[in-house]
Amino acid sequence: MGQLDQRVAIVTGSGRGIGQAIALRLARDGAKVVVNDLDEAPARETIALIQAQGGQAVACNGDVTAADFGTRVVATAVEAFGGCHVVVNNAGYTWDSVIQKMTDEQWYAIIDVHLTAPFRILRAFSDYLRPAVETERRDGQRIVRKIVNVSSTSGTNGNAGQVNYSSGKAGIMGMTRTLAKEWGRYDVTVNAVAFGYIQTRLTKPLNEGDGGTIDVLGRTVKIGVQAGRLAAMNQMIPLGRGGLPEEAAGSVYLFCSPDSDYVSGQTLVVNGGA
Would the pLDDT of 210 be above 60? Predict the structure, then answer.
């Protein structure tokens, strides 16, 4: 039996990269997973991988910044699997520029996906949480629920060219600490993981992979990192390399497992010792 048997987890942005690795890790330990991606095909792939390892998953696809998404994704978890015990706010991307060149559209797009969307998802979760806990306690049950918000070392330290992303990722840490205080009485732990350089399609060398751009809701957004900068980043990391998505997922799993039932309001920095 896995530590997450009978638990239901929502993982946003889980069609690719870190999010997919998180969904697979939780499912491997018994969780039933609600998978989310902007596009149906990546979500189907994640669901197929979960099912191939004997797990259960359903999709709730679409834009996490949509006003009704929080209500919709929590309802999907409850309707498909009968409850919700873990929420991992992982969805996001970067849209970089120095402040004098950053448009309002760039600012709000990144703040919305990294800060407003988690706020709405967790607000919707609270509407489910309170009556669920009342019923469980009346029946003599104590269930510890888990919230994990994905932040970044850009939020802990700041990063030139990322005033929007750094602000959003700093904000999610404030949200984490606040909800840890608000929801402790409901036996909910709320923690964050701040990733440094993790090897995903967003951090590939510019001469590899997706040609340096992705399409997000009709916007063409540059991705990738200059090869020289990647080499410098690797030199600054004591472990000598960027992390793998599976390693990133392991740190999130820690906060989802019963082993962290007395850990709340914390941000774990995952950066290879940098």
Answer: no
* pLDDT at res. 62: 97
Contact 151, 225 (CB under 8 A): no
For residues 175 and 126, give the distance between their C-alpha atoms in angstroms, rounded to a whole number: 14
Q: What is the 3-state secondary structure of the chain?
A: CCCCCCCEEEECCCCCHHHHHHHHHHHHCCCEEEECCCCHHHHHHHHHHHHHCCCCEEECCCCCCCCCHHHHHHHHHHHHHCCCCEEEECCCCCCCECHHHCCHHHHHHHHHHHHHHHHHHHHHHHHHHHHHHHHHHHCCCCCCEEEEEEEEHHHHHCCCCEHHHHHHHHHHHHHHHHHHHHHHHHCEEEEEEEECCECCHHHCECCCCCCCEEEECCEEEECCECHHHHHHHHHHCCCCCCECHHHHHHHHHHHHCHHHCCCCCCEEEECCCC
H or E stretch at 151: strand 145-152
- For residue 203, is pLDDT > 90? no
Which of 69-73, 142-146, 214-218, 243-247 comes out lowest in average pLDDT? 214-218
Return d(Cα 73, Cα 17) in angstroms, integer: 20
Catalytic annotation on 165?
Answer: yes
The pLDDT of 159-175, averaged and rounded, is 97
Catalytic residue from among 93, 165, 197, 253: 165
User: What does the block give as tokens for 120?
Assistant: 């709405």
- Per-residue pLDDT, averaged over 70-75, amounts to 98
* Mean pLDDT in residue range 198-215: 76
pLDDT for 230 beyond 80:
yes
Q: Which domains does the chain have, with CATH numbers?
A: 8-198+243-270 (3.40.50.720)
